[in-house]
Design brief:
The protein is built from 23 helices and 5 strands. It is mostly helical. A 5-stranded mixed β-sheet has the order 2-1-3-5-4, with helices on one face.
């Protein structure tokens, strides 16, 4: 333990830096009003906003007794198998933290301190298996946690300097602040890799317990993040192929024993991981059988695009890694290949194979896992025909492995007497960057975390008085986001990216909602045009989130084709006529939430559709269906 004291100290410091806003912001506002899961429209942190509308409802589902994460937005689809089952593991982790800390707010605050420190220690543990000095592990750990984007700025000094300056006027908190991803999903990925590394698959004889532990850790990835298990699976596949190819002793004669043992060890790990992952794949299969999969995929994917501009420099780093770690055996490879033609007993690339089978096996394992997230964005979109937002593989997995890989490569050439002179200032710079960025951002948006007493009264009323699984119609993005997070209720018109609701039904719900409010036809038409064509972000936000990437192209994300807009407007005219006749939507609707600011008040008397006022405070009204 004493040998790793600096790792423990720096892990704690990194955790404190990431969690610093929870100390600062309450001092900048009235402490009693601080709510880390609160924000105002157009203000505050996009990280907090995404936590609230995406992950808090998932944790709430687990706390309410569900095993699987399902649809948190639409009551009629809640409980059905969904792709969101792939985040169930992280939701269970956070639900456990809620139980330990006493509240959702406390759990998300605690996570900001705890998981960045764990990530630091895992990076350090992986690094000391490769780098010749522990201080490289300390530096890599600090960079991965506090400044991972620097790997995309090397080797451009001006870009690095610009990034340093941005800490004084940041757009948001540190990337690791974002829970679930990468705050929870990254340590899960790193832990699985460390478990795979620890058995010493090439040279040691790992016990069954270690192999089972590795299998369990890998299996858990299927319940964290689709980008996690796909990247890990490809990395493992590349390593398996390399073991087979490097294990060839002579053409057609199979493996030498070390390679055969590695295959056996991997087989045990894969069997255990497969058993753990089986329930997840059953959920996915059931979702595919529901007939909603194609619609959901279209909604949450983008047209194909190129990723070479994002990965080009990473391939340069990979080449540097290869040269510095495999340089000697690579330089001897032509001679070894020539020897093969002189003697049928000579193995292919004797020196290279000997090195790869023994000392270099762990390096090959690391290399496979570094290459996997660089390949996946293009590989998956060519297989699927659309982009699943491939930057997630690059930013959330390739960045950490790129930082570690570059550190390992540099550790092979740097003179020992220069190590501390380079690494210590670098660590201090990274710590300063993280500290400044978290501090400046806290001061910048502290006011957005001040809880509105009227809003809290609203949520308390819903939780105490609303019918079970209530469905609430609201016309503002703030309320759409907060209803599933702060209450047990559902949205009438949902945030589409978090629902398996079909696209056409999402459009119909939005049109009913607009008709009940009394929106004019030009207003609805404007809403279905791109935000850049005259609509403000506030006017287009709810709509853009309802449909997300539907009908997207490379330039205008939220744009609908003219023929689709015409179809929508014709449908809206019918809905307007039905509402005028006192008709209600063909979907469940229990309450209508009205924000009292003039802009968001209904333009029609809600009593005409048999809704009565049942809750009223300074900012909000709730109208209930009396039918």
């Amino acid at each position: 333990m004493k040998a790793h004291k600096w790792a423990l100290i720096l892990a704690i410091i990194c955790g404190l830096i990431v969690g610093l806003p929870h100390f600062l912001i309450p001092k900048l506002i009235t402490p009693q009003t601080y709510d880390p899961l609160h924000f105002y429209l157009g203000q505050g942190s996009s990280i907090t906003m995404e936590e609230v509308y995406t992950y808090v409802p998932e944790v709430r589902e687990i706390l309410e007794g569900k095993f699987w994460v399902t649809d948190t937005q639409v009551a009629e689809y809640s409980g059905r198998p969904t792709p969101f089952a792939g985040e169930t593991g992280l939701a269970w982790v956070m639900a456990g933290l809620v139980k330990l800390t006493g509240s959702m707010e406390n759990a998300f605050m605690a996570a900001d301190f705890l998981f960045p420190a764990i990530t630091f220690l895992l990076v350090y543990a992986i690094m000391i298996s490769f780098a010749k000095e522990k201080i490289f592990g300390l530096a890599a750990g600090a960079i991965v946690v506090l400044w991972p984007e620097i790997i995309a700025l090397i080797p451009y000094p001006a870009a690095i300097l610009s990034s340093i300056k941005s800490a004084f006027n940041p757009r948001d908190f540190l990337f690791i602040s974002r829970n679930f991803h990468p705050q929870l999903s990254l340590p899960a990925y790193l832990f699985a890799f460390w478990c795979l590394l620890r058995p010493g698959l090439a040279t040691a004889r790992p016990g069954l317990l270690r192999l089972v532990a590795a299998g369990l850790a890998i299996g858990f990835l299927f319940y964290t993040y689709i980008f996690n298990w796909t990247a890990f699976g490809l990395g493992l596949g590349l390593f398996f192929v390399s073991v087979v190819l490097l294990g060839i002793k002579r053409p057609g004669l199979g493996f030498p024993r070390p390679g055969l043992n590695t295959v056996r060890y991997l087989s045990v790990i894969l069997v255990v991981a497969g058993l753990v992952a089986a329930p997840y794949f059953l959920q996915v299969w059931q979702f595919r059988q529901s007939g909603l999969a194609a619609d959901f995929f279209a909604k949450l994917s983008l047209p194909k695009r190129g990723f070479f501009d994002l990965t080009a420099r990473h391939w340069i780093f990979v080449l540097v890694f290869l040269i510095l770690n495999f340089g000697k055996v690579i330089s001897n490879l032509p001679r070894d290949l020539a020897e093969r033609f002189k003697s049928s007993r000579s193995s292919i690339g004797t020196r290279f194979l000997d090195f790869a089978r023994n000392d270099g096996k762990s390096l090959i394992l690391f290399l496979c896992f570094w290459i996997a997230p660089l390949i996946l964005p293009d590989l998956m979109q060519n297989l699927l025909g659309r982009d699943l937002e491939g930057k997630h593989w690059i930013r959330r997995i390739a960045y950490p492995f790129g930082i570690m890989g570059l550190s390992i490569a540099i550790s092979q050439i740097i003179n020992k007497k220069w190590i501390k002179l380079i690494c210590v200032p670098l660590i201090l710079l990274v710590l300063a960057y993280g500290l400044i960025r978290q501090t400046k951002m806290s001061y910048k948006i502290a006011g957005s975390y001040a809880l509105n007493p009227d809003k809290q009264e609203l949520y308390d009323w819903i939780n105490q008085n609303a019918v079970p699984s209530a469905v609430i119609m609201s016309w503002r993005w703030d309320e759409m986001v907060n209803i599933p997070a702060q209450t047990h209720a559902f949205n009438f018109s949902p945030i589409g990216m978090r629902s398996i609701l079909p696209i056409n039904e999402a459009i119909d719900r939005y049109l009913w909602q607009s008709a009940i409010r009394g929106e004019s036809i030009p207003e609805v038409k404007k809403a279905f045009s791109s935000i850049g064509e005259g609509g403000t972000r506030e006017e287009g936000e709810a709509l853009s989130r309802v449909f997300y990437f539907t009908y997207a192209d490379e330039n205008i994300v939220f744009n609908f084709p003219d023929e689709k807009i015409t179809e929508i407007i014709n449908k809206y005219k019918k809905n307007l006529a039905l509402v005028d006749d006192g008709k209600l939507p063909p979907y469940r609707l229990n309450y209508i939430l009205v924000v009292k600011s003039l802009k968001f008040q209904p333009k029609k008397d809600l009593r005409t559709i048999e809704f009565n006022l049942i809750f009223n405070n300074s900012d909000y009204e709730i109208w209930g269906n009396v039918k």
